[in-house]
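Lecture 7, part B: from sequences to assemblies.

Below are the input chains for today's worked example.
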Amino acid sequence: RIIEVIEQHQSKEQPLAGKKVLVTAGPTIEVVDAVRYFTNHSSGKMGFAIAEVARQLGAEVTLVTGPVQLDEPVGVEVINVTSAKDMYDAVTKQFNEQHIVIKAAAVADYRPKKQHSRKMKKQDDDLMIEMERTDDILKTLGKLKTDQYLVGFAAETDKLLEYGQGKLERKNLDAIVINDISEEQNGFKSDTNAVHVLTNKGFNKAIPLKSKHEIASQLFSIFIGEMSGDGS
Amino acid sequence: RIIEVIEQHQSKEQPLAGKKVLVTAGPTIEVVDAVRYFTNHSSGKMGFAIAEVARQLGAEVTLVTGPVQLDEPVGVEVINVTSAKDMYDAVTKQFNEQHIVIKAAAVADYRPKKQHSRKMKKQDDDLMIEMERTDDILKTLGKLKTDQYLVGFAAETDKLLEYGQGKLERKNLDAIVINDISEEQNGFKSDTNAVHVLTNKGFNKAIPLKSKHEIASQLFSIFIGEMSGDGS
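Predicted structure of the full complex, as C-alpha cells:
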C-alpha cells in the first residue's frame, strides 16, 4: 500500500488534482425485522474501482458504500452506510461541495413499510410484505445540481439504451453508465464489466469487456473530456 | 492447514470416530428478481465451528451451507446451496445415512411467490411482495427420523425458553440450542455466542458467553453424553 501511495504521488497525469469526487458503491440493506432483510447482488467492485482511479487521477475522493466485502481503497475517505435512507443522508450532505458525483451504488428502490426491531414469528399462511418507495437519490441530486458533473448507473436486463436514455433525461444527469446484468461477465460479482455510456451532450459509446479498473479509467477519460468541453 | 490435519489425526479423543455428522450453516437467499433478494444476517460462523469441532472429534462431516464469507473447514465435505429449496433438497438427500444432524443454518421461512428472472421495473406506488412459506426442513427431518440425533437452533429475541421448548417438541428434536439474538455479542456476525440448550430428556443448561468454537465443543459434550445414555 505504501508503494501505491508513492506511485500515486509520482504520477504526472493528475487531471483531477484539486477536484472533489464523490462515489457511491455497493448494495443497501432494508430491514424487515431483527433477522430478515432485503438486499441485492451488488458487490461494490465497480464503485470501488472508480474511487481508486479517481484518487490516482489526483482527486480528493469520498466513497459512500453499503455493506461489501472489499478492502478500502488507499487515500480515500470511506463512509459506511447500511440502508437507502443512510445513503441518501450521507450523499445529499456531501453533494454541495463536490465537482463530480458518480452513483454506482445499487440502492434499494423499495423498503418494507414496517421494520420490526424484534423477530416476527412465522405463520402457516402466506405473508404480504408491504413495500414503500425509498427516496430517489439520483433524482434529488439532479434537482440540487448547480455545476456538479453527475453520473448515474443503470443495471438493466432489457431495452438497455432505451431505459438508460430515459433515466439520463428524467434525472437530469450529465452521463449514464449502462450495465447489462443479464450477461454473467458484466454481473455484479465479476471483476470485469462491459458498459454503454450515454451523455447529455449526445456522446454514445459501448466499452467492451474489460476489468472494472480499466472501465473506470475509460469512464474518467470521457467525463474529463466532456467537462473540459471536448465532447468527443 | 497441514498442521491442523496432523493434529487432528494425532488427537486421542475421537468420540465421534465412525460417526457421520451433517451440519447446516449460513443464510439462504430467496430471489425476488435478477437483482433483488430476501435474506438474513446469519454469518455461518456457528455452523462452521460445529462442523470443525465434529471433525476434530473424529466424525465424517458434511457441511451444507448457504452463501457465507468463511474459509471451508479442513477435512469436511462442503455442499454449497443458495435457496431454502436447495438446502431442503441437499439435507433430506443426506439425512438417512447420518448419525447426528445439527441444523444451524438460518433458512428463510418465506420466499417470494413469484421469482422474476429479469429485473422488475420500479413503480411510483407501494409494492406488495407476496411471500409463501418454504418447506420446513427441521419438521421434515423430525418426521423422517429413525435413530438420528437431531438438533435444531432457535434464534429468538423474545420468550426464548418458551419458544425453544415448543419447537423442540413440535419438531420432534433431540435437542435445541437457543440463541438470544437481541444481544450483540450473541449475534449472527460475532465470533462469540451464549446459548441455552434444552433436550427432550429434560436437560436444561445455559452456556455463558464464549467463542463459537468453545460453544460447539460444549454442545458436543452434551449431545455425546445424551447419546451414550448419560443424561447429565
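Note for the exam: Chain A touches chain B through 37 residues (CB under 8 Å). Keep this in mind when comparing with the next example.
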